[in-house]
Amino acid sequence: PIERVVAGPEKKSRVISDFEKRLVSYHEAGHAVLGYLLPHTDPVHKVSIIPRGHALGYVLQLPIEDKYLITKAEILDRITVALAGRAAEEIVFGEISTGAQDDLEKATKMIRRMITEFGMSEELGPLTFGNKWDSPFLGRDLARDRNYSEEVAAAIDREVKNIVSKCYGKARSILDSNRHRLEKIAETLIEKETLEGPELEALLN
How many angstroms separate the CA atoms of 174 and 72, rounded? Predict the structure, then answer.
């Protein structure tokens, strides 16, 4: 199944404590609620707290059609969804965990690409930064040479921080005002461990 490709093999034998199960449930519920409510995101196909690969839980979002382009609004919504797990932890437990590491990495990477590759920066304008080249030593990953000043590097860092703050604030605000939905999804996940898209939709409505 597609989940195996996206998140790795299922690890049902992994035993986690009740507290961790509850934390993971709220974390994934945060992603799922934002994935459902934000207008520029792919539909939530499934949400699960059954560990897969390195992840203790996951939300599967699948596009309705093939996409060759992505808008700035879509990127910002994706970043907000990525940060919603950590926002949910903070709202419910008044505490944050290491569970958001992968989300934070993805969000930061997306924002950097937005600014340096797609010219979508409010502060720096429609410019690209860094020379792109294929690196045969990095599994032919695209690497980037820095061809800009310390001043521009500082401006990029500043904007990354601003966008993270804005998206995180938005995720918190939406989850705060949809706390009943967050609770409902998380508590159902604790009980059932997996929710398919239609079940999720029914609970959220």
Answer: 20
DSSP 42: P
Instruction: Collect all residues with Cβ–Cβ distance below 8 Å to 204 and sequence separation of at least 6.
Output: 33, 36, 37, 181, 184, 185
193 φ/ψ sector (left φ>0, alpha ψ -120 to 50, else beta): left
- Digit-coded pLDDT (tens) for 63-110: 888 888 999 999 999 999 999 999 999 999 999 999 899 999 999 999
Distance CA 131, CA 90 (A): 39
Residues facing 133 on adjacent strands: 143
Q: Catalytic residues, which ones?
A: 28
Q: Containing H/E element for 103?
A: helix 101-116
State the Cα–Cα distance between residues 100 and 106, nearest whole angstrom: 10
Give the separation between CA 64 and CA 100, rounded to whole angstroms: 27
Query: Are the CB atoms for 112 and 129 separated by under 8 Å?
Result: no
